[in-house]
């Protein structure tokens, strides 16, 4: 049974490592499902960023003498499963793009919580080098979330609304 903050830190690092490795597997599928070119590019770029984040986590674990593998992030398993369900439920196009952004932002918010917690714990333990590394990752997660919001507001949601309006127009013509 875990009894001190170091045990908690180990659990949190392993959980976050598991989450990031699951995201590495999910991002290519999301990229393939997206139709908006900027969204496809955002997923591609975030895949590269996530690879660096995994390396950073490995570096922090090495500094602290912690094995990065161990815990399984069940929360991320659920978020990834939700994303896969979305890809199965919607046809390719703007509505799916909007749904993918929502799924990705849920992931980003989970990661922001994880990295915020880890950074605070490391700072309180006097592990400033490790805290600084994970604070960098926290900033990247926030930046990705902001990019996704901008994409949704500037392009994707409007395209999804136009799709819905076109579908309604077609439906009302067919019924006449």
From TrEMBL:
InterPro entries: DUF892_YciF-like, Ferritin-like, Ferritin-like_SF, YciF. Keywords: Coiled coil. Residues 40-67 form a coiled coil. This is Ferritin-like domain-containing protein. It comes from Paracraurococcus lichenis. The lineage of its organism: Bacteria, Pseudomonadati, Pseudomonadota, Alphaproteobacteria, Acetobacterales.
